[in-house]
Automatic annotation (TrEMBL):
The lineage of its organism: Bacteria, Bacillati, Actinomycetota, Actinomycetes, Kitasatosporales. Acetyl-CoA binds at residues 79-81, 87-92, 115-116. Homohexamer; trimer of dimers. It comes from Streptomyces amritsarensis. It comes from the Bacteria. The active site is at 120 (proton donor), 410 (proton acceptor). PROSITE patterns: GNAT. HAMAP family: Eis (MF_01812). SUPFAM superfamilies: Acyl-CoA N-acyltransferases (Nat), SCP-like. Keywords: Acyltransferase, Transferase. The keyword Cell membrane does not apply. This is GNAT family N-acetyltransferase.
């Protein structure tokens, strides 16, 4: 009989050993210490078979930008079940406990990044943002259709980065839904570590900001580099891996992309997890030089309290309709509800009349940040439209000026 309960501090190292086992990982001492410190700051739930820890899950205490608001949002991480106990409902037990607890604590949404896309839909999570991998052939200067901002660029020491770029990142978050806030610890331990956890050949992080001296910065780029590999047939050019690039204006973004593409002794820029509507894809003059090489579901979102989530966000256009919501895990969300929303806010309460749209809570989660259209899900047979035009009306109301996006994998 497996017992689901909180994991005390004394068991954190056992939880880490379990995670390293299932993720086929053997991190260095410094990374283990970082993981330990991270788990100390997280909510922790474990599955115990007697005294043996056979399942584990942690949740960061995050805030997530949603249209017009910033909501408390547990960010699930380190989800793992021992190979001896898989497919017996251990994950289901931990997830149910985590979702109930977060809902009771007044957190309307939860989020995670999935190692496999097939796992979390059954728990009501929907893929809410898309990431794109963008590669630049930087063996020649980056060709641009706009003039880059010519204010000065300067390097920032990673030690000072949180103070210099932290406030800029926090302000930029409000401009795009789907972005988690970062504590100084998350900045330090997940973005600015000397050694990259996935590729030890990469340099430490380098940070370049743009702006006049004494003025607030207008943008920044965080990148790491790897020297060219000249050996044998598998020659590869020096690489610039862009971890994050934020800019106030397209001209600032152009200057920062131009700068990383011009780094000496490199011939390729690779930026993982860019937004699908990245302005770079429009202002690059040669789309053979700047290519999207992959697209993938990024942040998975769960509406734990649908009413609280829908009434907290802003709405782009007026809409009034009855939703029939299915939620197999959290019954308070299930039923027929009248949504009345518009630029001045929203109400959401039980309704008696027939439904205009019927959908599962995972579909609502996929559309909540504005990254998926209800009409697409109607076309896919996943949402039932009982009143013609209802899906398009809801799409108009959910729409956001830019696509939701985050490259902040936790
Ligand atoms: C993924 C993992 C946590 C699942 O744990 P588990 O205890 O075996 O899951 P459960 O028994 O509660 O499974 C619940 C359901 O999800 C399904 N499921 C579980 N893992 C799945 C996967 N990787 N792909 C597809 N379906 C999966 C199960 O078949 C089951 O389906 P059912 O309800 O129709 O019977 C576990 O296999 C694991 O630790 N994997 C390695 C680490 C990992 O990938 N973690 C996720 C990080 S985001």
């Amino acid at each position: 009989m497996v017992d689901i309960r909180e994991v005390p501090e004394a068991d954190i190292d056992r939880a880490l050993e379990l995670a390293y086992l299932v993720f086929h990982d053997r991190p260095e001492k410094a990374a283990r210490e970082r993981h330990h410190a991270l788990l100390l700051r997280c909510d922790r739930i474990g599955a115990y078979d007697g005294d043996v820890l056979v399942g584990f899950m942690a949740a960061h205490d995050l805030r997530l930008s949603v249209p017009g608001a910033d909501l408390p949002c547990p960010g699930l991480t380190f989800v793992c079940v021992a190979p001896t106990h898989r497919r017996r409902g251990v994950l289901t037990g931990m997830m149910t406990r985590m979702m109930r607890r977060a809902g009771e604590a007044g957190r309307p949404i939860a989020a995670l990044w999935a190692s496999e896309a097939a796992i979390y839909g059954r728990f009501g999570y929907g893929g809410a943002t898309t990431g794109a991998t963008v590669e630049i052939d930087s063996t020649r200067p980056l060709a641009l259709r706009i003039d880059p901002d010519r204010r000065p660029l300067r390097l920032v020491d990673p030690e000072d980065a949180v103070d210099v770029i932290g406030p800029f990142h926090e302000a930029a978050r409000a401009g795009r839904p789907g972005r988690p806030g970062r504590s100084p610890e998350r900045w330090r331990d997940e973005w600015l570590t000397e050694q990259d956890e996935e590729d030890e050949e990469l340099s430490p992080p380098r940070i370049i900001v743009l702006g006049d001296p004494g003025e607030p910065i207008a943008g920044y780029v965080i990148y790491r580099t790897k020297p060219a590999d000249d050996g044998g047939a598998a020659r590869s050019p020096g690489l610039v891996r862009v971890d994050e690039l934020e800019a106030d204006t397209p001209a600032v973004a152009a200057a920062l992309w131009e700068c990383v593409a011009a780094l000496d002794l490199t011939g390729k820029v690779s930026a993982w997890g860019r937004p699908a509507d990245d302005p770079l894809l429009h202002f690059a003059a040669d789309r053979d030089q700047v290519r999207v090489t992959a697209q993938f579901p990024a942040l998975w979102l769960r509406l734990l309290d649908v009413r609280a989530a829908l009434t907290a966000r802003s709405w782009a256009a007026p809409v009034e309709l009855v939703l029939e919501v299915h939620d197999a895990r959290l019954p308070d969300n299930a039923g027929r509800f009248r949504l009345k929303a518009g630029p001045h806010g929203a109400t959401y309460g039980h309704a008696d009349g027939p439904a205009d749209l019927a959908l599962d809570v995972r579909e609502l989660a996929a559309c909540y940040l504005g990254g998926t259209r209800i009409t697409e899900l109607v076309a896919a047979g996943l949402v039932q439209e009982h009143t013609p035009g209802a899906a398009a009306a809801l799409d108009d109301a959910l729409r956001t000026p830019v696509l939701p996006h985050t490259g902040d994998e936790f």
